[in-house]
Write a structure and sequence with these properties.
Layout: E1 3-5, E2 7-9, H1 16-26, E3 31-32, E4 34-35, E5 40-41, E6 44-45, E7 53-54, H2 60-69, E8 73-78, H3 85-96, E9 101-105, H4 112-122, E10 127-131, H5 141-161, E11 166-168
Parallel strand pairs: 1-11, 2-3, 2-10, 4-7, 8-9, 8-10
Antiparallel strand pairs: 5-6
Helix pairs in contact: 1-5, 2-3, 4-5
């Protein structure tokens, strides 16, 4: 199966969300998503370098649902094995909307980048929603998220060089 990942979206919160957006910017992958009205995050207003649109609500729930709704699939990164709070809501919303969802907890998979690659290709994901805890909840989440995305990118680039049909485009 082929996949053509065209965009990474996220809600802009500290932690997994920002790690995904920063990754997309650094690697030239179009990015976006929904954030709460007022561009709210735990560290204040979300910087405008992140191309996020504001929901009518200042609450996180609407932003979470709209990002799930507007994606082809969601990956939820976490340090903990059990999802809680907004990450749990994200998983529930993906199920409710009939969207594929992958929970990637540190320590679950021996090859997380390969698992992410299979998820994207297997579900033909073009728009990937990246979610997970904020930094105040899981201080190492941004590092974990970024490392998996970088490893996925390296694997993706290798598969491109060998002729596999996985492309990232605009």
């Amino acid at each position: 199966m082929s996949a053509h990942l065209t965009r990474i979206i996220s809600g802009g919160q500290t932690g997994a969300d920002r790690a995904a957006l920063d990754f997309a910017i650094r690697h030239g992958i179009p990015h976006g998503g929904w954030c709460p009205h007022g561009r709210l995050a735990e560290d204040g207003a979300i910087d405008f370098r992140y191309r996020l649109r504001e929901t009518p609500s200042a609450g996180y729930e609407q932003r979470t649902e709209w990002n799930v709704r507007d994606s082809d699939g969601t990956v939820i990164f976490s340090i903990a094995e059990q999802l809680v709070a907004g990450s749990k809501l994200t998983e529930e919303l993906a199920s409710r909307h009939g969207k594929p969802c992958l929970h990637m907890a540190r320590g679950f998979a021996s090859h997380p980048a390969q698992l992410l690659h299979q998820f994207i290709a297997g579900h033909r994901i073009q728009v990937l929603n990246v979610a997970g805890p904020r930094v105040s909840t899981e201080p190492d989440i941004a590092i974990f998220t970024g490392s998996v995305l970088r490893a996925w990118w390296k694997e993706h680039r290798s598969s491109q060089a060998t002729g596999a049909n996985l492309r990232v485009g605009h």
